[in-house]
Amino acid sequence: MTENEEKKLCAEALIISGVKPEKCMKCGKCSGACPSYDEMEYHPHQFVDMVSKGQIKKLMESASIYKCLSCFVCVERCPRNVMPANIIEAVRALQERPQGTDRLTPDEVKNILDDDTPQQLLMAAFRKYSR
Ligand code: SF4
Ligand code: SF4
Protein backbone atom coordinates (compact mmCIF):
# COMPACT_ATOMS: atom_id res chain seq x y z
CA MET A 1 0.00 0.00 0.00
CA THR A 2 1.46 3.36 -1.03
CA GLU A 3 1.45 6.40 1.25
CA ASN A 4 -1.22 8.01 -0.94
CA GLU A 5 -3.44 4.94 -0.82
CA GLU A 6 -3.07 4.85 2.94
CA LYS A 7 -4.07 8.51 3.21
CA LYS A 8 -7.11 7.92 0.99
CA LEU A 9 -8.22 5.04 3.20
CA CYS A 10 -7.79 7.22 6.28
CA ALA A 11 -9.96 9.91 4.71
CA GLU A 12 -12.55 7.25 3.89
CA ALA A 13 -12.45 5.89 7.45
CA LEU A 14 -13.15 9.38 8.77
CA ILE A 15 -16.09 9.81 6.40
CA ILE A 16 -17.57 6.38 7.18
CA SER A 17 -17.18 6.83 10.94
CA GLY A 18 -18.06 10.51 11.19
CA VAL A 19 -15.16 10.87 13.63
CA LYS A 20 -13.46 14.24 13.97
CA PRO A 21 -10.03 13.37 15.41
CA GLU A 22 -9.19 17.02 16.02
CA LYS A 23 -11.68 16.93 18.90
CA CYS A 24 -9.55 14.34 20.73
CA MET A 25 -7.62 15.75 23.68
CA LYS A 26 -5.64 12.51 24.15
CA CYS A 27 -6.89 11.97 27.69
CA GLY A 28 -6.91 8.17 27.26
CA LYS A 29 -10.24 7.70 29.05
CA CYS A 30 -11.55 5.62 26.14
CA SER A 31 -8.68 3.15 26.34
CA GLY A 32 -8.69 3.13 30.13
CA ALA A 33 -12.30 1.95 30.13
CA CYS A 34 -12.05 -0.54 27.27
CA PRO A 35 -12.81 -4.12 28.41
CA SER A 36 -10.66 -5.48 25.57
CA TYR A 37 -7.65 -3.32 26.40
CA ASP A 38 -5.36 -6.25 27.26
CA GLU A 39 -6.36 -8.09 24.10
CA MET A 40 -5.76 -5.21 21.74
CA GLU A 41 -2.43 -4.38 20.15
CA TYR A 42 -3.78 -0.91 19.30
CA HIS A 43 -6.19 0.80 21.68
CA PRO A 44 -9.14 3.09 20.99
CA HIS A 45 -7.21 6.36 21.41
CA GLN A 46 -4.49 5.01 19.09
CA PHE A 47 -7.03 4.29 16.35
CA VAL A 48 -8.13 7.92 16.49
CA ASP A 49 -4.56 9.21 16.55
CA MET A 50 -3.14 6.92 13.85
CA VAL A 51 -5.97 7.42 11.37
CA SER A 52 -5.65 11.19 11.82
CA LYS A 53 -1.95 10.84 10.96
CA GLY A 54 -2.61 8.79 7.81
CA GLN A 55 -1.47 5.51 9.37
CA ILE A 56 -4.18 2.94 8.77
CA LYS A 57 -2.27 -0.03 7.30
CA LYS A 58 -1.03 -1.31 10.67
CA LEU A 59 -4.52 -0.98 12.11
CA MET A 60 -6.13 -2.86 9.21
CA GLU A 61 -3.61 -5.69 9.57
CA SER A 62 -3.92 -5.90 13.35
CA ALA A 63 -6.13 -8.42 15.16
CA SER A 64 -7.25 -5.47 17.27
CA ILE A 65 -10.07 -4.78 14.80
CA TYR A 66 -11.54 -8.18 15.73
CA LYS A 67 -10.88 -7.85 19.47
CA CYS A 68 -13.14 -4.82 19.81
CA LEU A 69 -16.46 -5.94 21.29
CA SER A 70 -18.43 -3.00 19.89
CA CYS A 71 -19.61 -2.34 23.43
CA PHE A 72 -19.30 1.44 22.97
CA VAL A 73 -17.94 2.02 26.46
CA CYS A 74 -15.18 4.10 24.86
CA VAL A 75 -17.83 6.24 23.19
CA GLU A 76 -19.69 6.74 26.46
CA ARG A 77 -16.53 7.63 28.39
CA CYS A 78 -15.14 10.11 25.88
CA PRO A 79 -15.58 13.66 27.19
CA ARG A 80 -15.24 15.07 23.68
CA ASN A 81 -17.72 12.85 21.82
CA VAL A 82 -15.00 11.52 19.51
CA MET A 83 -16.58 8.05 19.15
CA PRO A 84 -13.45 5.85 18.91
CA ALA A 85 -15.54 2.68 18.42
CA ASN A 86 -16.90 4.13 15.19
CA ILE A 87 -13.45 4.54 13.75
CA ILE A 88 -12.50 0.98 14.73
CA GLU A 89 -15.66 -0.22 12.98
CA ALA A 90 -14.72 1.82 9.89
CA VAL A 91 -11.20 0.38 9.79
CA ARG A 92 -12.63 -3.13 10.09
CA ALA A 93 -15.10 -2.41 7.27
CA LEU A 94 -12.31 -1.16 5.02
CA GLN A 95 -10.37 -4.35 5.69
CA GLU A 96 -13.38 -6.62 5.14
CA ARG A 97 -15.17 -5.02 2.20
CA PRO A 98 -12.68 -5.93 -0.54
CA GLN A 99 -13.13 -9.58 0.44
CA GLY A 100 -16.79 -9.41 -0.56
CA THR A 101 -19.79 -10.80 1.26
CA ASP A 102 -19.53 -14.36 0.01
CA ARG A 103 -16.05 -15.23 1.26
CA LEU A 104 -17.62 -17.55 3.81
CA THR A 105 -20.53 -19.79 2.87
CA PRO A 106 -23.11 -21.00 5.41
CA ASP A 107 -21.68 -24.52 5.02
CA GLU A 108 -18.23 -23.33 6.04
CA VAL A 109 -19.51 -21.50 9.10
CA LYS A 110 -20.34 -24.68 11.03
CA ASN A 111 -16.70 -25.74 10.84
CA ILE A 112 -15.47 -22.70 12.75
CA LEU A 113 -18.02 -22.83 15.55
CA ASP A 114 -17.66 -24.39 18.95
CA ASP A 115 -20.16 -25.13 21.73
CA ASP A 116 -19.54 -21.75 23.37
CA THR A 117 -20.38 -19.66 20.31
CA PRO A 118 -23.55 -17.71 21.13
CA GLN A 119 -26.24 -17.61 18.40
CA GLN A 120 -26.45 -13.88 18.94
CA LEU A 121 -22.89 -13.59 17.62
CA LEU A 122 -23.87 -15.39 14.42
CA MET A 123 -26.85 -13.15 13.83
CA ALA A 124 -24.77 -10.05 14.47
CA ALA A 125 -22.07 -11.28 12.08
CA PHE A 126 -24.53 -12.00 9.30
CA ARG A 127 -26.13 -8.56 9.75
CA LYS A 128 -22.75 -6.85 9.82
CA TYR A 129 -21.10 -8.62 6.91
CA SER A 130 -24.01 -9.03 4.52
CA ARG A 131 -24.67 -5.31 3.98
S1 SF4 B 1 -16.23 -0.51 21.64
FE1 SF4 B 1 -14.35 -1.69 21.36
S2 SF4 B 1 -12.70 -0.23 21.68
FE2 SF4 B 1 -14.57 0.67 22.54
S3 SF4 B 1 -14.57 0.09 24.70
FE3 SF4 B 1 -15.74 -1.47 23.62
S4 SF4 B 1 -14.26 -3.06 23.11
FE4 SF4 B 1 -13.08 -1.23 23.64
S1 SF4 C 1 -11.58 9.60 25.54
FE1 SF4 C 1 -12.01 10.83 23.71
S2 SF4 C 1 -10.77 12.67 23.96
FE2 SF4 C 1 -9.95 11.12 25.37
S3 SF4 C 1 -8.32 10.06 24.19
FE3 SF4 C 1 -10.22 8.91 23.89
S4 SF4 C 1 -11.07 9.73 22.01
FE4 SF4 C 1 -9.59 11.23 22.72
Structure in a nutshell:
The protein has 131 residues and is mainly α. The chain has 9 helices and no strands.
Description:
- The chain is 54% helix and 0% strand.
- It contains nine helices and no strands.
- It is globular, with a radius of gyration of 15 Å.
SSE string, helix = H, strand = E? HHHHHHHHH
Strand-pairing-aware structural class: mainly alpha
| Mean pLDDT, all residues | 91
Number of helices: 9
Strand tally is 0
Low-confidence segments, ≥5 residues, pLDDT <50? none
In CATH, the topology of the largest domain is named Fumarate Reductase Iron-sulfur Protein, Chain B, domain 2
Please identify which CATH superfamily of the largest domain we are dealing with: Alpha-helical ferredoxin
- Tell me which ligands are bound: iron/sulfur cluster
Helix share bin? 40-55%
Q: From the 3D coordinates, which CATH architecture of the largest domain would you assign?
A: Orthogonal Bundle
**Amino-to-carboxy terminus distance:** 26 Å
